[in-house]
Amino acid sequence: MFFLTIARDIILPIFLVMALGFWTYQKFHIDLATLSKLNFYVFVPAFMFYSLLIFKPGNREMADSVLFNTLLACANFGAAYALGRWLKLRASLAASATLGVMIFNSANYGIPVVQLAFQGEGVAIQVITITAMNVLTYTLGILVAGGWSEWRKGLQSIIRMPIIYSLIAALLLRAVDWDPPDAIITPLKWVSDGMLPIALLTLGAQLGKSGVSLRHPREVWVTTAARLLLSPFLAFLIIQLMGLHGLLARVLFVSSAFPTAVAVVLFGIEYDKEPHFAAAVVSITTLVSAVTVTLIISLSASLF
Asked: How far apart are CA 182 and CA 184, in angstroms?
């Protein structure tokens, strides 16, 4: 019954808004570039800044979140590399599959799930995961996609990330214990509240654009299983190794099961690493996650 309650109260609302975004793109072919820029430069930074100011996760929680996500990315890389060797994938397909396992959708998909499942304090933890995942995406992710010669591009991408400056600003304000006046907090909250619907509409529209092309069905399903099932198993081992517990452990465990991020498709296009395969992995993992993420949320309550 708990599984069905989670599916009804957490997963179904998210997929209904995503379906609306999917329909909107199919009907009007809305400009995805503009939606993505609004998310990246306005809604997500404002949401992160507001969440860190209001809910104030502890320094130990933030450090543990960064370490956990770094260890998980390395573990996922090792697992995906081993799977690629086992399946004897050619280099470009192996790189795309590895990225599909490593890089998960921590923001557009992750924040709504965590918001509904764990409320405010859980969201503050997920904000740190978003920052860590973005940095890892543009360091390890670019190294996997483009090789060591692309490290400068990764560094430049990180420097341009507004979420980095949003995080720094929030931490500085916390350090000096300054509470912004209502004239600042009120519009910040308005923009922050817009993040969830805009993120889900954008994700649905992205799925409407990319579609599903199963040119490599075996590889797609192996990558999907690794992202949605193997990654949470590795996350559980890392959580046990680090001795984490309570809300922090539950949020990190659930976030490890989120579907592949759209950034993998962008890397595929940029570095000629099987973009159609990447788009299929993003679509399939997102759809199948309706079941697997429900299961992982249910398990998190009993495991931690």
From this structure: 5
- Give the C-alpha separation, 55 to 1, whole Å: 31
Residue from 103, 159, 123, 149 nearest 251 by CA: 123
User: Residue 104, SS3?
Assistant: strand
Residue among 159, 141, 163 at smallest CA distance from 150: 141
Rounded Cα gap, residues 261 and 106, in angstroms: 8
Q: How far apart are CA 32 and CA 284, in angstroms?
A: 20
pTM as predicted: 0.89
Running DSSP on this structure, what letter comes out for residue 179? P
Distance (Å, rounded) from C-alpha 107 to C-alpha 258?
A: 10
User: Are 235 and 256 a contacting pair, CB within 8 Å?
Assistant: yes
Nearest alpha carbon to residue 32 among 252, 300, 279: 279
What confidence tens digit (pLDDT) does each residue in 110-133 have? 999 999 999 777 888 898 898 888
Q: Residues for the chain: how many in total? A: 304
> pLDDT tens digits, residue range 165-192?
888 888 888 888 777 888 888 998 999 8
User: Concatenated DSSP letters for 257-302?
Assistant: TPPBPTHHHHHHHHHTS-HHHHHHHHHHHHHHHHHHHHHHHHHHHH
Distance CA(162)–CA(67), nearest Å, equals 22
